[in-house]
């Protein structure tokens, strides 16, 4: 049963890989919308999506912390993308302070400060292992070793769940969330957070596709097409 399912998944992914970029983009959008509809039906409290997102993120960052502290190498990590992630988390944390101070704020703070710690490790403690010449502002390189691949995949799933949380909250409030802070400067923050979640989700979607493809092929090291980078 599992062998047959694996074979079907491999066939489907092989078919998708042969399609032109526009078809792939269309399939990605349709798949995302299908999952959103499914989540809206089965998840009644949208806070569970947020908590699931943070749990997956925490799992991914734990793998990354293990890599940096035990293996003493940051090879395969993009410093520029970590800094961009810290900026994004900083904006989200500020929005969390402005909109509501609660569990969201505490979990966002944990994600923000652990990302700052990763930046500190890459910049200072493990600088000698940083591949600066290959860091072209993407979150991965052409060949990604297992720990980095697991971390980025977890990050992609976390971003999608958080994106789903915000989108479904907007739908449930009939757009009220977007105007919760009024129409002035502060009113832009909810829109900016949701837009950043959507952008990050689509950026990481391509990586997640190749990650699953590599796992189905039994590979421990993720090899990406040169055009992906």
UniProtKB/TrEMBL annotation:
InterPro entries listed in its UniProt record: ER_ret_rcpt
Gene: A07g505600.1_BraROA
Stated family: Belongs to the ERD2 family.
Subcellular location(s) per record: Endoplasmic reticulum membrane
Keyword Endoplasmic reticulum carried by entry: yes
Keywords: Endoplasmic reticulum, ER-Golgi transport, Membrane, Protein transport, Receptor, Transmembrane, Transmembrane helix, Transport
Transmembrane spans: 23-42, 109-126, 138-168
Membrane topology value: Multi-pass membrane protein
Protein name: ER lumen protein-retaining receptor
